[in-house]
Design brief:
alpha+beta, about 375 residues, single chain, 9-stranded antiparallel β-sheet, 4-stranded antiparallel β-sheet, globular
Length: about 375
């Protein structure tokens, strides 16, 4: 189905009606249709609020039947081509004068946090596409993307910064570093790029820019603007439901009993390609916790319910809270290694800062074995 065919069903959904399954599936995965649904909801709330400000109108008894017939004609005439929910349509007829100013506020609300630029890059010729969101408001903490991409071919670390926008073109500052040989497991650190010269790249809507990285080859860069900030900067296409074989951790908070052990709100890590996807949480002074979607030696079983993971370790009840559902699995397996130091397994990693990542269980266990 396309968005035009779904439009009337979005209206019906706002009115409390049941819609076909294929339509519900389209709305759940279509950003434009979900934006329309949210806009209808905002409009309805705003109209009801405005209506509440108006004094109750008095109506003469003798004019009720005539006025009712007139309203029915309006209703029937509009019903055939209605593209918005009935409650919004009826409220607009009653409040059209006040609404002329209120609609501007409703439309402006959809632009909160925007515009933002969604960047996509991939290593040519057949690398995976990585997407992230940068702001254009000069905020130094959100106006750039930092990423590290590793494989058997080596490690690519890059930082892409918004510089300016002139008409339909955007200027970006790009820094990259490639290492072909990694002697031991290493996490790319974008702080290492401060001494790398920045290349200015100009990109327009729909364009594909190729950037040469010495020793690696070319990476392809594209971008598109959105009028709002997605829930995840490094996963703008993520839906509420996790995909098959996906394990994702968004803004994790780890609670032990009544104590908050770890709070990393605003960060995320997602693994969509490993059947043995595993979360590693490192906390200074406590070592690391491994939470895996498959059983492994020495691990205890925990339970999963949407954005909550519960388990018991060493006599303590733990609760891991995340901002989105983590996995389709109903169970996880958990182990704790209190002697683990991050710097001994990842070159250049600090031991005094908490961190987490989702990777293959085999890869995480090999780090311990290699050491």
């Amino acid at each position: 189905m396309n968005c035009e065919e779904v439009a009337e069903f979005v209206s019906a959904l706002c009115d409390g009606a049941t819609i076909p399954r294929e339509v519900a599936g389209h709305i759940g995965g279509c950003q434009a249709c979900r934006a329309r649904l949210n806009a209808y909801a905002d409009m309805g709330v705003e109209l009801k609020r405005i209506a509440s400000l108006e004094p109750p109108a008095t109506m003469k008894a003798r004019s009720w039947e005539k006025e009712q017939r007139i309203r029915m004609k309006w209703w029937q005439g509009g019903r055939a081509t209605m593209k918005i929910p009935r409650f919004a349509f009826a409220s607009m007829l009653a409040l059209i004068l006040l609404l002329s100013s209120s609609l501007v506020l409703v439309r402006a609300r959809t632009n909160v946090g925007g515009p933002v630029l969604v960047l996509s890059y991939r290593i040519l010729p057949d690398g995976n596409t990585v997407r992230c969101v940068i702001t254009t408001d000069g905020n130094s903490s959100t106006n750039h993307c930092s990423d590290s991409n590793s494989g058997t071919w080596g490690l690519l670390t890059l930082n892409i910064r918004f510089v300016s926008k002139d008409g339909g073109r955007t200027q970006l500052g790009v820094r990259t570093r490639y290492e072909s040989q990694i002697l031991q497991p290493k996490q790319g650190n974008t702080d290492d790029l401060k001494d790398v010269p920045e290349k200015i790249v100009s990109i327009g809507p729909g364009e594909k820019q190729q950037i040469f990285v010495s020793g690696l080859g070319e990476i392809e860069l594209t971008g598109e603007y959105l009028d709002h900030m997605p829930a995840l900067r490094y996963g703008p296409d993520e839906s509420l439901d996790p995909r098959k074989s996906e394990f994702r951790i968004i803004s994790p908070v780890l609670v032990r009993g009544k104590e908050i052990v770890l709070n990393l709100v605003g960060s995320s890590s997602i693994d969509s390609g490993d059947q043995d996807a595993t979360l590693m949480i490192y906390n200074p002074g406590e070592g690391r916790y491994l939470i895996s979607t498959i059983p492994f030696e020495g691990a205890v079983e925990g339970s999963v319910q949407l954005g909550q993971i519960k388990f018991n370790l060493e006599g303590h009840d733990y609760l891991l809270l995340t901002a989105m559902p983590t996995t389709r699995s109903e169970h996880v397996w958990v182990a704790h290694d209190p002697q683990y130091n991050l710097s001994e397994h990842m070159q250049g990693a600090p031991d005094d800062q908490p961190m987490f990542m989702v990777r293959s269980l085999n890869r995480l266990l090999q780090q311990r074995i290699q050491h």
